[in-house]
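Q&A log
Question type: sequence-to-structure
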Amino acid sequence: MFRMTRSVFHRLHRTLVQNYGLTSTNDICTKEALGLFLWTCGAPQSFRQVANRFGHSLETISRKFSEVLYSICRLSIDIIRPKDPHFGTVHPKLQQARFWPHFNDCIGAIDGSHIPVTVSKSEQAKYIGRHGYASQNVMAVCDFDMRFTFVVTGWPGSAHDTRVFLDTLVTYKDKFPHPPEGKYYLVDSGYPNRKGYLAPYKGQRYHVPEWQHGRHAVGSKEVFNYAHASLRNVIERSFGVLKMKWRTLLQLPSYPIEKQSKIIVA
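Response status: OK
Response body:
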C-alpha cells in the first residue's frame, strides 16, 4: 500500500518527525498522516477514497496531505543531490569493457519527462505540448545508480527541453550540480552539445530499439551513439520506475499548479 518496506517507512517517518517538522495533532498522528500521503500518491487515490479508508473528514485529509507534502519537499532539498559533489570516483558501470575508457569521465544523464497535469481551460493552451495533453516538462539529472540528483518542475508542456535546460543553468546556477572540469553529463539530441554536456551524433541511429533484432552498429559514429544511448538510458529507466511506483504522476489531480509541482518533487 505504501510502496516501501516496513523498515523504510519507519526510517522515513522518523526522519520527517525529527528533522523536517512533521508533527501529530489531536485528530491524527504522524504515522497515519504519512501513510495516507503515500497511499494517495501510490495507488493513486482521491481524497474521498482516502477519507473513507482512514475514517477522517475531507478537510482533515487535505490538511494532513499538505503538511506531509511540505515536510517531504524540505527533505528533498537534502536528498536530491549527488552523493559526491566533486564526482571524484568512476562508477563501476563505466568500467565495463564497452564503455571504458571512452566514457570514464561521465557523471550522469539529463533528460526531460512530461508529467500530465490538470489545469483550467484558460491555461491549457500553454501546457499542451507535442504529446497533445496538458503536462509539465520536468527536467531531471540522475547518476548511474538511478538516483535523481537534481530536478526542476513548473515548466509548461509546450516549453522545449533546450529552453528549460538553459534557463536552469542560470536560474539555479548555485544549486545545479555543474560538472567539474573534464567531467560531463550525457544528453540527447534535444539538448545543446557543449562543454560538460555530451550529445550524440545527429543524423545517425541513436535509440536502443533501433539496434534490436540483430541490427548491429555500423561505423564509428553509430558505435559511439549505441554506447551513448545505452548509458543515457539510465535516466529513462529512472523516470519509468518513478511513474510505475507513484502512479499519481500518470495524471495529477486538480490541485493548484504549484502544489502539483511539489508533488512531482516529493
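Response note: Residues 92-265 form one domain.
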